[in-house]
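**Polypeptide and fold**
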Amino acid sequence: MRILVVLLTIATATLAIASESMRVNGVRVYGRMHDVSVGDIRAAIADFVSTSSDKRKPAALEVLSSIEMRAYEKTHDWGWVAIRRFPRGDPDHRNEFAWITWKRAIDDAPDFLRFIKSANEVYVFPVATPLKPHRDDKHLRLLDADARRKVTRLLGDGETWWHGLYTLVVIDDGKPGIGLLFRRGRNEAVLFFSHFTDEEGTFNGEHISGLLDDERGRHQMEEWEQRYAQPELTPKSGLTSR
């Protein structure tokens, strides 16, 4: 009986810790909060804001350990980004650490490219407002073998993507975009495409982004869309983004 009581006490305490949350600088924080300080959390939020194009705070912050957190994007379908604790490299701060937002880029993600090439199911769906995209499960359309083979070969090739830094001036022309859902087993990736901004999405929930190379990717992707995604590019009444 005593062992049972002890086990129940441990289980209850573990559940209480797991369910705890608090707000720091207006951001909901949860997870293994006892592994980090409030100062760590504030530093992680500040670095996320500094790397965000619109300078917005994350929707939530999940503490995984003393050296890693996940920041969830305000746009739900853009997933989360990792924020990791690294030692500062300069000699004057040898014993100090910094929290760095670790956003994944498609051109530097060989595991993502391999997965795209190997996907055995690919779905296309309409995106009515590309600047506020969402995954539209109600309008998923499974691609046939020919369309799937061509798009996985194109997007799974590292040469399709721009390598290096880039700056975009985004002008919304009002045209709809498309989304692609790639699946193989339990793994999946989602990418959103439009004609006036870069490509963003998730790989197993983690945010990932990139830019199609104008010569080796964008023109070919536009040709693919015109041939295989016309139903999704045609505006329909009642089809809106969240």
In short: The chain has six helices and 13 strands. The longest strand covers residues 80-87. Residues 186 and 204 are 9 Å apart (CA to CA). The mean pLDDT is 86.
